[in-house]
Amino acid sequence: MRQFKLVAASILGAGLLAGPIQAAAQSTPAKPAAAAPAVDPASIKALETMSAYLRTLNAFELKADIVADEVTDDGRKLQLGSTVTYKVRKPSQFTIDTVSDRKVRKLYYDGKQITLYAPKVGVYAQAPAPPTIRATLDALHDEYDIDVPLEDLFRWGEPGDDRDKITKGFYVGPARINGVETDQYAYTTGDVDWQVWIERGDKPVPRKIVITSLFDETDPQFSANLDWNTAPGLKDADFAF
Predict the structure, then answer these.
(1) Nearest to 86 by CA among 118, 133, 119
(2) How far apart are CA 187 and CA 43, in angstroms?
Protein backbone atom coordinates (compact mmCIF):
# COMPACT_ATOMS: atom_id res chain seq x y z
CA MET A 1 0.00 0.00 0.00
CA ARG A 2 2.84 2.42 0.77
CA GLN A 3 4.46 1.65 -2.61
CA PHE A 4 1.17 2.36 -4.37
CA LYS A 5 0.88 5.76 -2.65
CA LEU A 6 4.44 6.70 -3.62
CA VAL A 7 3.87 5.79 -7.27
CA ALA A 8 0.49 7.55 -7.39
CA ALA A 9 1.95 10.68 -5.83
CA SER A 10 4.79 10.76 -8.38
CA ILE A 11 2.36 10.37 -11.31
CA LEU A 12 0.10 13.15 -10.05
CA GLY A 13 3.09 15.37 -9.35
CA ALA A 14 4.46 14.91 -12.88
CA GLY A 15 1.20 16.16 -14.36
CA LEU A 16 1.37 19.34 -12.31
CA LEU A 17 5.02 20.17 -13.04
CA ALA A 18 6.06 22.14 -16.13
CA GLY A 19 9.04 23.43 -18.11
CA PRO A 20 12.40 23.76 -16.38
CA ILE A 21 11.18 22.30 -13.12
CA GLN A 22 10.11 19.11 -14.87
CA ALA A 23 13.41 18.89 -16.74
CA ALA A 24 15.33 19.35 -13.51
CA ALA A 25 13.35 16.62 -11.87
CA GLN A 26 14.14 14.26 -14.72
CA SER A 27 17.86 14.96 -14.49
CA THR A 28 18.00 14.24 -10.76
CA PRO A 29 18.13 10.52 -9.86
CA ALA A 30 15.24 9.52 -7.63
CA LYS A 31 16.17 8.37 -4.15
CA PRO A 32 15.07 4.81 -3.42
CA ALA A 33 12.24 4.55 -0.92
CA ALA A 34 13.35 3.50 2.55
CA ALA A 35 12.63 -0.14 3.28
CA ALA A 36 9.92 -0.75 5.84
CA PRO A 37 11.24 -2.11 9.14
CA ALA A 38 10.94 -5.87 9.61
CA VAL A 39 9.11 -5.21 12.88
CA ASP A 40 6.63 -2.35 12.63
CA PRO A 41 6.66 -0.48 15.98
CA ALA A 42 2.87 -0.17 15.74
CA SER A 43 2.54 -3.96 15.79
CA ILE A 44 4.54 -4.13 19.03
CA LYS A 45 2.51 -1.28 20.50
CA ALA A 46 -0.67 -3.23 19.76
CA LEU A 47 0.66 -6.21 21.72
CA GLU A 48 1.66 -3.97 24.61
CA THR A 49 -1.80 -2.38 24.73
CA MET A 50 -3.48 -5.79 24.66
CA SER A 51 -1.13 -7.16 27.32
CA ALA A 52 -1.66 -4.18 29.61
CA TYR A 53 -5.43 -4.62 29.39
CA LEU A 54 -5.28 -8.37 30.06
CA ARG A 55 -3.27 -7.66 33.22
CA THR A 56 -6.09 -5.44 34.51
CA LEU A 57 -8.55 -8.36 34.44
CA ASN A 58 -8.73 -9.78 37.94
CA ALA A 59 -11.32 -12.32 36.82
CA PHE A 60 -12.68 -13.53 33.50
CA GLU A 61 -14.44 -16.35 31.70
CA LEU A 62 -13.25 -17.39 28.28
CA LYS A 63 -14.55 -19.86 25.73
CA ALA A 64 -12.16 -20.89 22.95
CA ASP A 65 -13.23 -22.87 19.90
CA ILE A 66 -10.00 -24.51 18.77
CA VAL A 67 -8.97 -26.25 15.56
CA ALA A 68 -5.50 -27.82 15.57
CA ASP A 69 -3.52 -29.90 13.08
CA GLU A 70 -1.92 -33.09 14.34
CA VAL A 71 0.84 -34.66 12.26
CA THR A 72 1.05 -38.45 12.29
CA ASP A 73 4.29 -40.44 12.25
CA ASP A 74 3.95 -40.98 8.49
CA GLY A 75 3.49 -37.23 7.80
CA ARG A 76 -0.28 -37.07 7.47
CA LYS A 77 -1.91 -33.89 8.78
CA LEU A 78 -5.16 -34.42 10.69
CA GLN A 79 -7.44 -31.62 11.83
CA LEU A 80 -8.93 -31.95 15.31
CA GLY A 81 -11.40 -29.68 17.07
CA SER A 82 -12.05 -28.92 20.72
CA THR A 83 -13.65 -26.38 23.02
CA VAL A 84 -11.80 -24.98 26.02
CA THR A 85 -13.59 -23.03 28.74
CA TYR A 86 -11.66 -20.99 31.29
CA LYS A 87 -12.76 -19.59 34.62
CA VAL A 88 -9.99 -17.48 36.11
CA ARG A 89 -9.67 -15.44 39.29
CA LYS A 90 -6.28 -13.91 39.92
CA PRO A 91 -3.86 -14.43 41.45
CA SER A 92 -4.41 -18.04 42.40
CA GLN A 93 -7.45 -19.81 40.98
CA PHE A 94 -8.55 -21.27 37.66
CA THR A 95 -10.63 -24.04 36.14
CA ILE A 96 -10.02 -25.21 32.58
CA ASP A 97 -12.47 -27.57 30.87
CA THR A 98 -11.37 -29.17 27.60
CA VAL A 99 -13.94 -31.06 25.53
CA SER A 100 -13.28 -32.83 22.24
CA ASP A 101 -14.74 -35.83 20.41
CA ARG A 102 -12.05 -38.04 21.93
CA LYS A 103 -11.58 -36.80 25.46
CA VAL A 104 -12.83 -34.59 28.26
CA ARG A 105 -10.39 -33.09 30.76
CA LYS A 106 -10.94 -30.78 33.72
CA LEU A 107 -8.06 -28.94 35.36
CA TYR A 108 -8.68 -27.34 38.76
CA TYR A 109 -6.36 -24.98 40.62
CA ASP A 110 -7.56 -23.59 43.96
CA GLY A 111 -4.37 -21.84 45.07
CA LYS A 112 -3.04 -24.83 47.00
CA GLN A 113 -3.28 -27.87 44.76
CA ILE A 114 -3.81 -28.80 41.14
CA THR A 115 -6.26 -31.52 40.10
CA LEU A 116 -6.49 -33.14 36.66
CA TYR A 117 -9.73 -35.07 36.18
CA ALA A 118 -10.85 -37.34 33.32
CA PRO A 119 -14.60 -37.75 33.95
CA LYS A 120 -15.26 -40.27 31.16
CA VAL A 121 -12.93 -42.81 32.74
CA GLY A 122 -13.37 -41.68 36.35
CA VAL A 123 -9.68 -41.01 37.00
CA TYR A 124 -8.03 -38.01 38.63
CA ALA A 125 -4.60 -36.95 39.86
CA GLN A 126 -3.65 -34.29 42.42
CA ALA A 127 -0.45 -32.55 43.44
CA PRO A 128 0.53 -29.57 45.60
CA ALA A 129 0.76 -26.33 43.64
CA PRO A 130 2.54 -22.97 44.01
CA PRO A 131 0.54 -19.95 45.25
CA THR A 132 0.17 -18.14 41.89
CA ILE A 133 -1.20 -18.96 38.45
CA ARG A 134 2.06 -18.12 36.68
CA ALA A 135 4.15 -20.32 38.99
CA THR A 136 1.63 -23.15 38.66
CA LEU A 137 1.75 -23.03 34.86
CA ASP A 138 5.55 -23.21 35.06
CA ALA A 139 5.36 -26.19 37.43
CA LEU A 140 2.88 -28.02 35.18
CA HIS A 141 5.26 -27.63 32.25
CA ASP A 142 8.57 -28.25 34.03
CA GLU A 143 7.55 -31.03 36.42
CA TYR A 144 4.69 -32.82 34.65
CA ASP A 145 5.16 -31.94 30.95
CA ILE A 146 1.64 -30.49 30.80
CA ASP A 147 1.01 -27.43 28.62
CA VAL A 148 -2.24 -25.59 29.21
CA PRO A 149 -4.09 -24.48 26.03
CA LEU A 150 -3.63 -20.74 25.37
CA GLU A 151 -1.40 -20.31 28.41
CA ASP A 152 0.24 -17.34 26.68
CA LEU A 153 -2.83 -15.39 27.82
CA PHE A 154 -1.26 -15.45 31.28
CA ARG A 155 2.23 -14.59 30.05
CA TRP A 156 1.78 -11.70 27.63
CA GLY A 157 3.33 -8.57 29.07
CA GLU A 158 5.24 -10.47 31.73
CA PRO A 159 9.04 -10.96 31.87
CA GLY A 160 10.07 -13.73 29.47
CA ASP A 161 7.10 -13.32 27.11
CA ASP A 162 9.46 -13.58 24.08
CA ARG A 163 8.48 -10.17 22.75
CA ASP A 164 12.14 -9.36 22.11
CA LYS A 165 12.41 -12.49 19.92
CA ILE A 166 9.92 -11.21 17.33
CA THR A 167 11.74 -10.89 13.99
CA LYS A 168 8.78 -9.78 11.86
CA GLY A 169 5.66 -7.88 12.80
CA PHE A 170 3.16 -5.84 10.80
CA TYR A 171 -0.45 -4.67 10.62
CA VAL A 172 -2.59 -6.73 8.23
CA GLY A 173 -5.82 -4.74 8.36
CA PRO A 174 -9.30 -4.54 9.89
CA ALA A 175 -11.45 -7.65 10.26
CA ARG A 176 -14.76 -8.66 11.80
CA ILE A 177 -14.62 -11.72 14.07
CA ASN A 178 -18.00 -13.09 15.16
CA GLY A 179 -19.53 -9.64 14.77
CA VAL A 180 -16.72 -7.86 16.66
CA GLU A 181 -14.56 -5.22 14.96
CA THR A 182 -10.88 -6.12 15.29
CA ASP A 183 -7.43 -5.30 13.91
CA GLN A 184 -5.31 -8.15 12.54
CA TYR A 185 -1.55 -8.34 13.14
CA ALA A 186 1.02 -10.90 11.96
CA TYR A 187 4.34 -11.85 13.55
CA THR A 188 7.25 -14.26 13.26
CA THR A 189 9.05 -15.59 16.33
CA GLY A 190 11.77 -18.15 15.67
CA ASP A 191 10.24 -21.00 13.64
CA VAL A 192 6.66 -19.92 14.30
CA ASP A 193 4.41 -17.56 12.33
CA TRP A 194 1.48 -16.27 14.35
CA GLN A 195 -1.42 -13.88 13.98
CA VAL A 196 -3.70 -12.17 16.44
CA TRP A 197 -6.96 -10.28 15.93
CA ILE A 198 -7.36 -7.63 18.67
CA GLU A 199 -10.72 -6.10 19.51
CA ARG A 200 -11.06 -2.39 18.85
CA GLY A 201 -12.15 0.03 21.56
CA ASP A 202 -11.61 0.08 25.31
CA LYS A 203 -11.42 -3.73 25.68
CA PRO A 204 -8.50 -4.80 23.46
CA VAL A 205 -8.74 -8.54 24.08
CA PRO A 206 -7.53 -11.08 21.50
CA ARG A 207 -10.52 -12.40 19.54
CA LYS A 208 -8.69 -14.87 17.32
CA ILE A 209 -5.25 -16.48 17.28
CA VAL A 210 -3.61 -18.50 14.52
CA ILE A 211 -0.21 -20.18 14.97
CA THR A 212 1.71 -21.88 12.15
CA SER A 213 4.66 -24.10 13.05
CA LEU A 214 7.43 -23.78 10.45
CA PHE A 215 9.73 -26.47 11.86
CA ASP A 216 7.58 -29.20 10.27
CA GLU A 217 7.36 -29.42 6.48
CA THR A 218 3.57 -29.83 6.72
CA ASP A 219 3.26 -26.40 8.44
CA PRO A 220 0.66 -27.53 11.02
CA GLN A 221 -1.65 -24.81 12.33
CA PHE A 222 -3.44 -24.02 15.56
CA SER A 223 -6.36 -21.58 15.53
CA ALA A 224 -8.71 -20.39 18.25
CA ASN A 225 -11.73 -18.09 18.24
CA LEU A 226 -12.15 -16.46 21.64
CA ASP A 227 -15.35 -15.34 23.37
CA TRP A 228 -14.78 -13.24 26.53
CA ASN A 229 -16.74 -12.40 29.66
CA THR A 230 -14.65 -9.82 31.52
CA ALA A 231 -17.08 -9.36 34.41
CA PRO A 232 -18.05 -12.87 35.59
CA GLY A 233 -19.59 -13.72 38.93
CA LEU A 234 -17.20 -16.41 40.13
CA LYS A 235 -17.30 -18.22 43.49
CA ASP A 236 -14.80 -20.38 45.39
CA ALA A 237 -16.87 -23.42 44.45
CA ASP A 238 -16.02 -22.84 40.78
CA PHE A 239 -12.41 -23.79 41.52
CA ALA A 240 -12.96 -26.71 43.89
CA PHE A 241 -12.72 -30.30 42.71
Answers:
(1) 133
(2) 8
